[in-house]
């Protein structure tokens, strides 16, 4: 009620006051009734669990290991990228116990001692030079490739055979792009790329078909280091044919996965194999020396390699003898490692 002449009914003063109150007085200025403090007659000190007892009554069913394994196998064979597959992956049984006396390459490369020393090449040679017995031991320890934790341990910061051609081409051009070094350290994860998944999922099928067709025993293998300990290759198997040792290299090309290989080679020229036509219109399969995988087969000290190219419609296996002339590339790769790769890593 206003004290002005018309305050008994309505006036502008009342309107102004109400508008001012609406814009300037917060509702929190008035105490809420439900904020009143509660007092507990019991002075006993209680734990959090006692104050907030768990009222849930869940039924926890014990999951059978066989069910988990079955789900994992089905997801793995689906050829789809599913995050749950990783959660169901069994624990790796292989540990880094009984690893060769070879020190981790990472710990030596990034040590203060290497940074300070002038002759880094001699320093690395002192730590990583290997004899053939040590190379064979590491190959045995890393059997299973990506399913074996030691496989990743020995690949780290080494130049792998799948990258040899990239390095050799860069050396030839005398041009070293940042992408090359990122590839060498594994910055580009292609594990879930369709072509990579196809190859990994069908490699065992190809080996089984190869063994049954030619009646040859294939021994699993993995990393074969060069005697320098700085570059390596991972063949897919070993086989003895007519008393001679061969490494086995399996290729399951995704692009021609559902084609007869002969048809694919006629249509495409960028395959690892090519057709060689004879005078009588017949043909043989020969290695395409321009292909990037050509360098993979010459790392081991075997007399040659059996290259198996598999599709769902056909399989071709050819024998490739070691080329002594190609071994000169090993020196080029090692020179690149010491003069280009190590300085880039230490930047």
TrEMBL record:
InterPro entries listed in its UniProt record: NF-kappa-B_Signaling_Reg, PDDEXK-like_dom_sf, Restrct_endonuc-II-like, YqaJ_viral_recombinase
Gene Ontology biological process: DNA repair
Pfam families, alphabetized: YqaJ
SUPFAM superfamilies: Restriction endonuclease-like
Gene3D superfamilies named among the record's database cross-references: 3.90.320.10
YqaJ viral recombinase domain: residues covered: 150-258
PANTHER family: EXONUCLEASE, PHAGE-TYPE/RECB, C-TERMINAL DOMAIN-CONTAINING PROTEIN, YQAJ VIRAL RECOMBINASE DOMAIN-CONTAINING PROTEIN
Protein name (Swiss-Prot/TrEMBL): YqaJ viral recombinase domain-containing protein
Organism of this sequence: Aphis glycines (Soybean aphid)
